[in-house]
Amino acid sequence: MSTFTARHARTGEVLATYAEAAPAQVDASVAAAVAAAPVFAAASGAQRAALLEKIADEIVALGAPLLELAHAETALPLPRLEGERGRTAGQFRLFAALVREGSWVDARIDPALPQRQPLPRPDLRRMLRPLGPVAVFGASNFPLAFSVAGGDTASALAAGNPVVVKAHPAHPGTSDLVAGAIARAVAACGLPAGVFAMVHGTTPATSLALVRHPAIEAVGFTGSARAGRALFDAAAARPRPIPVFAEMSSLNPVFLLPAALQERGPALAEGLAGSFTLGVGQFCTKPGLVVGVASPAWDAFVAALAAKAQSLPAGTMLHAGIAAAFTAGLAELKGVTWLAQGGGHVAHIAASDLLAHPELAHEVFGPFTLLVTARDAAEVRAVAAALDGQLTATLHGTDADFADAADLFAVLERKAGRVLANGFPTGVEVAPAMHHGGPYPATTDTRFTSVGTAAIFRFARPVCYQNIPEALLPAELKNANPLGLLRLLDGKPTRDPL
Q1: Nearest 5°: phi and psi at 245?
Q2: Which of 56, 404, 412, 432 is most buried, by CB atoms within 10 Å?
Q3: 164 backbone φψ class: left, alpha, beta (φ>0; ψ -120 to 50)
Q4: Catalytic sites, residue numbers
Q5: In 10 A of CB 401, how many CB atoms?
Q6: Region 19-24: what's the mean pLDDT?
């Protein structure tokens, strides 16, 4: 049996030893999910909502020991972890409200028109149904909100899918505690144990075995571009390919427009320093590229940001692997001018040099940002156009700036899943209107989000029922509309019965 150890993030002390999941354990977990799938798919929205709320309660009930262990395994501060626990419970409750109301299934009914000429229309009814067992891969940087009980797990369960989680090896003890809470909630709600399972693993073999299992129907992943692409390729190479919803890599560029720099350059430097070093720069929405036009105001901003970054204390990264990758990523940045290498690392490059060497515009996960000096607005747009897909893009400007920024804005809304004005991207609100995704390589499918209630649509598929007898129809599509859903009837939204 292969084992691995969990270590204290600050001291390196061994905290516990864990067993790598053997192939038989992966098979057993998926087999249990397969057995549970039809039962869970048949559960009502109210039953799923009760499960999601019970999971939230069980996680909160873990109390201080959960936060203390997560702190030891990740070095994240206790107040941050307390807030993350609240976000974790909150997103389960948000999905509970969504599925209890039920209209998310997008029920559509076009009644039969037997007298229509030249051909009659059949009775057509359509709604979203669960996919089946979903594999979820926990992220390292959010040991609660993007891990075992993260948004992928919450949204997959909300849609009626059993979930098998591969825990992140950087916080296995935290993962065990949360997995136990979910398992207790499943049992308390009288659902089959196979609705949820978790396996440990440090090797690609364990991850690939889960993705390649023929009974897994979809994958949710948050992590590096290399690992996400490996899972995506493995899923695509299956005899029966499945979707992989992977959030992977983003620079989250920030564009500072001239009048804004003139008006509030020092405040922008202060805000950006806090944003790109927040959580030791280990946020997927960390601003890793900052672009401005050469001017005295830009020069003053650059000097202020570099001084602030240099003065910040160094933080402890999540684990040794991320720290090593950060050091290697900095070493790959050839041809830049280093301005700060303190608690925040800041480098500078001319826009023309970046355009000539686009390989420099890649994510370095950690407290680093690259400043780009453009000669004029046209060169700013050229930098934006040359970027890969992003989770976010940010504009800082005044009303006068924005009046001249339509062309740049048009580029950015094609490049990013979320466009911000006069803010910083490191806060991701868990809300129905949030979109946390973007064109590749930010994610593998720009149409979907991993945050907010729209995340549920990743793990559901439409089924059309044609001339199906009333007795066989799901409750959501029955004539009487017993659940009181908002449905499309002949193309018009209504809660009325048919």
Answers
A1: -100, 90
A2: 56
A3: beta
A4: 247, 284
A5: 22
A6: 94
